[in-house]
């Protein structure tokens, strides 16, 4: 399986409205060391971020991280899921979902319009603080899009996404979370998709809803990530090289396998905001973090599994990827921390609400 990681930016943003005295317990529940917050390039396993979301929500009694003037109380998202489950089509469910968000939140709401063959959701945001405003929209869209995809059982390809803020450092994260066709600096944040999907039938049931909620929030922000992009295809192919048994193919090798010219593959990756090398680096980075967090393998063994000829090369690469050495990263995780999500899972009721990626 792919081992996803989440930028420390999202961790810091999720903690922004938490009282200082609550911070240690929340970080401990997620298995995230406080020292990691100071590393701008740091990343955490996706399951750790999911546990953090739950812990913050229960601490604030707010599934929306304290970003809105009104709390989205714990249980709100689950209630929304039940409310839209029997709407019949995605269009009816989406309209009810948007009304539900408007009932739960005061400062942010979405509006659906159909323009010929495009369905357009526009966000209206009255949050004044720029950082809160941005993170609120990121959170809203991930929750909304994840629920939409789950309802019809497949990823809804977003044809275009325009954000009402400037290009952020984490723009590469957006391509995984939302899609490839991104624009920034728009008057309002909007997402567009094929209007024909509004007639898609809802295929979920009460039984599948229980499973969806039990695995949330990870089921919302990971299960329906983009899998059909060229970057995703390259990553899936390179994943077979993890373990050190197979050599890493060149871009020319992959182009031959994909039946396209090397220049075509290069252009398609660049159009998605990446390169062959960045896809390879991201895959090895996430695998390295997984092994450092969840295995007893030595750093030399991890280096070999990831295909590095020398441990020193792995050390240099990991420092470039995360801002810390592999030994430092592992020491932070092991220094009195519980397993990611252990505390949050222990406290979580069987019907905990669904809440809200490399």
Supply the key terms.
5-stranded mixed beta sheet, 7 strands, DNA-binding transcription factor activity, Arc Repressor Mutant, subunit A, 358 residues, alpha+beta, 9% strand
Strand content: 5-15%
Number of helices: 17
What value does the Rg take, in angstroms?
21 Å
Tell me roughly what share of residues is in helical segments.
Answer: 40-55%
Keywords: DNA-binding, Transcription, Transcription regulation
GO molecular function: DNA-binding transcription factor activity; transcription cis-regulatory region binding
Domain HTH araC/xylS-type: 232-332
Pfam families: Arabinose_bd, HTH_18
Could you walk me through the main structural features you see in this protein, from its secondary elements to its overall organization?
This protein is of the alpha+beta class and 358 residues long. It has a domain at 230-333: Arc Repressor Mutant, subunit A, CATH 1.10.10. 50% of the residues lie in helices and 9% in strands. It contains 17 helices and seven strands. It has helices spanning 8-15, 23-30, 46-60, 76-84, 90-104, 130-152, 171-177, 206-214, 218-221, 230-239, 251-258, 262-271, 276-294, 299-305, 311-322, 326-334, 342-347, and strands at 5-7, 43-45, 108-115, 118-125, 160-163, 182-184, 190-194. The protein has a five-stranded mixed sheet with strand order 3-4-7-5-6. Strands 1-2 form a two-stranded antiparallel ribbon. Helix 13 (276-294) crosses helix 15 and helix 14 (299-305) packs across helix 15. The longest helix is centred in the middle third of the chain and has 23 residues, at 130-152. The radius of gyration is 21 Å and the shape is globular. GO terms for molecular function: DNA-binding transcription factor activity; transcription cis-regulatory region binding. Residues 339-358 are annotated as: Disordered. This is Transcriptional regulator, AraC family. Keywords: DNA-binding, Transcription, Transcription regulation. InterPro entries: AraC-type_N, Homeodomain-like_sf, HTH_AraC, Tscrpt_reg_AraC-type_HTH.
């Amino acid at each position: 399986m792919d081992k996803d990681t989440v930028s420390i930016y999202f961790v810091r943003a999720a903690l922004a409205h938490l009282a200082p005295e609550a911070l240690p317990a929340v970080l401990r529940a997620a298995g995230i060391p406080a020292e990691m917050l100071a590393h701008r390039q740091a990343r955490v396993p996706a399951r750790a971020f999911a546990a953090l979301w739950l812990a913050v929500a229960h601490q604030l009694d707010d599934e929306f991280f304290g970003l809105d003037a009104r709390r989205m109380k714990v249980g709100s998202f689950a209630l929304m899921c039940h409310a839209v489950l029997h709407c019949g089509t995605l269009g009816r469910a989406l309209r009810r979902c948007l009304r539900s968000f408007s009932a739960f939140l005061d400062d942010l709401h979405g509006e659906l319009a159909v323009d010929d063959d495009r369905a357009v959701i526009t966000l209206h945001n009255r949050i004044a603080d720029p950082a809160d405003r941005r993170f609120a929209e990121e959170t809203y869209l991930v929750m909304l899009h994840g629920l939409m995809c789950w309802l019809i059982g497949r990823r809804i390809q977003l044809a275009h996404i325009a954000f009402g803020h400037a290009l952020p450092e984490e723009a590469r994260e957006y391509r995984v979370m939302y899609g490839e066709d991104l624009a920034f600096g728009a008057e309002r944040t909007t997402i567009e998709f094929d209007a024909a999907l509004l007639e898609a039938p809802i295929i979920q049931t009460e039984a599948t809803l229980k499973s969806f909620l039990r695995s949330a929030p990870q089921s919302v922000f990971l299960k329906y990530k983009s899998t059909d992009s060229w970057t995703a295809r390259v990553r899936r192919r390179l994943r077979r090289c993890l373990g050190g048994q197979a050599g890493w193919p060149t871009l020319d090798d992959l182009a031959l396998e994909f039946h396209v010219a090397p220049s075509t593959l290069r252009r398609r990756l660049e159009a998605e905001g990446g390169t062959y090398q960045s896809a390879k680096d991201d895959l090895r980075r996430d695998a390295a973090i997984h092994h450092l967090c969840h295995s007893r393998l030595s750093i030399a063994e991890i280096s070999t599994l990831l295909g590095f000829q020398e441990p020193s090369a792995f050390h240099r690469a990991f420092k470039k990827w995360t801002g810390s050495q592999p030994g430092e990263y592992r020491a932070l995780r092991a220094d009195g921390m519980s397993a990611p999500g252990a505390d949050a899972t222990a406290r979580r009721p069987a019907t905990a609400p669904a809440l809200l990626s490399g």
